């Protein structure tokens, strides 16, 4: 996806955090190995993000289809990715809390959702800092509010919703397993 991205500078800014995460996973592999499920959901999320970084979040072919199919002017692919961040990345967060922090029950699920919300907020703050560093017009390049003054809050809420949904399902599955034993 690094070959001929729509906007090279924006692609680099969007891809740098992902590169740091992947390098961290590689260098910590011997100390901590995630389950195959966690690696799979991280891979799916990384694909969604890399696709958007290549085209820009506002210019993905999927987003063009959304706009023409639902007759909207706003790009919604970024909202889809925020939702999937919560849905998918909550699984490795839960795994870390259960294996490293030894949390069980309610607190493992609750703190996983808090972690998802925290990382969603951190991303939005990084987006804001990139816009400030870019100077005049930076907000249009990096923040992508597209006229929605609550864009940041909606993005974080979708991550929260995704994380809460996945943790609700995980808690339900865990409870059923305990009852069947």
Helix content: over 70%
Q: Look at the helices and sheets and give the structural class.
A: mainly alpha
Number of separate structural domains: 1
Element order: H for helix, E for strand? HHHHHHH
* Percent range for β-strand residues: under 5%
Low-confidence stretches: none
Q: What gross morphology would you assign?
A: globular
- Major pleated sheet: none
Q: Give the mean pLDDT.
A: 89
Count helical runs: 7
DSSP E strands, number: 0
For the termini, the CA-CA separation is: 47 Å
Q: What value does the Rg take, in angstroms?
A: 18 Å
Pfam families: DUF2238
Transmembrane segments: 12-29, 36-56, 76-97, 109-135, 155-173
Protein name: DUF2238 domain-containing protein
InterPro entries: YjdF, YjdF-like
Overview of this protein structure:
With about 180 residues, the protein is an all-alpha fold. The chain has one domain (about 10-180). The chain has seven helices and no strands. It has helices at about 10-25, 35-55, 60-70, 75-100, 105-135, 140-145, 150-180. The longest helix has 30 residues, at about 150-180. It starts with 7 loop residues before the first helix and ends with a helix. The relative contact order is 0.11. This is DUF2238 domain-containing protein. It comes from Cohnella faecalis. Keywords: Membrane, Transmembrane, Transmembrane helix. InterPro entries: YjdF, YjdF-like.
């Amino acid at each position: 996806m690094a070959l001929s991205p729509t906007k090279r500078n924006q692609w680099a800014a969007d891809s740098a955090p992902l590169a740091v995460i992947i390098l961290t996973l590689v260098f910590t592999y011997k100390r901590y190995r995630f389950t195959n499920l966690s690696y799979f959901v991280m891979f799916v999320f990384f694909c969604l993000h890399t696709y958007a970084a290549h085209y820009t979040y506002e210019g993905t072919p999927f987003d063009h289809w959304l706009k023409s199919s639902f007759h909207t002017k706003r790009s919604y692919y970024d909202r889809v990715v925020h939702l999937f961040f919560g849905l998918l990345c909550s699984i490795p967060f839960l795994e870390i809390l259960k294996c490293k922090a030894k949390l069980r029950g309610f607190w493992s699920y609750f703190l996983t959702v808090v972690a998802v919300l925290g990382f969603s907020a951190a991303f939005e703050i990084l987006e804001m800092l990139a816009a400030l560093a870019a100077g005049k017009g930076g907000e249009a390049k990096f923040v992508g509010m597209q006229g929605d003054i609550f864009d940041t809050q909606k993005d974080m809420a979708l991550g929260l919703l995704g994380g809460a949904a996945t943790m609700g399902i995980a808690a339900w599955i865990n409870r059923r397993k305990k009852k069947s034993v």
